[in-house]
Amino acid sequence: MSEKYTGLKRIWAIHRKQYEDFREEYNRKRVRCPKCGELGNYNVIIVKSSFNPDKQDEYMDKDKCTCLKCGDTHIFHYRISEYK
Fold first, then answer.
1. Is residue 76 within 8 Å of 44, Cβ to Cβ?
2. Sheet harboring 64-67: ordered strands across?
3. What is the pLDDT of residues 8-30, one digit of tens each?
4. d(CA 84, CA 32)
5. Is there a contact between 31 and 81 (Cβ–Cβ < 8 Å)?
6. Which of 7, 33, 65, 76 has the smallest count of CB within 10 Å of its CB?
7. Residue-wise pLDDT tens digits, 33-45
8. How far apart are CA 33 and CA 74, in angstroms?
């Protein structure tokens, strides 16, 4: 195995770990429907989103969610952690 390949593999592993840690926190902040506050009960259509570890604050998950309680349609980024 070449050194270049090994180096790229190591960089990929570091970025993957950063992404997994980031997504864990990101998902924890987005568990409820923004309209009715329903917890986690929704259908989703997956939309590809790009992650840049140097611009985490600009990340926006654009998966389309439909709440199974109230029918509201929104993107995952706009889900909320607590319903007020």
1. yes
2. 42-45, 64-67, 73-75
3. 888 888 888 989 999 999 999 99
4. 11
5. yes
6. 7
7. 999 999 988 999 9
8. 8
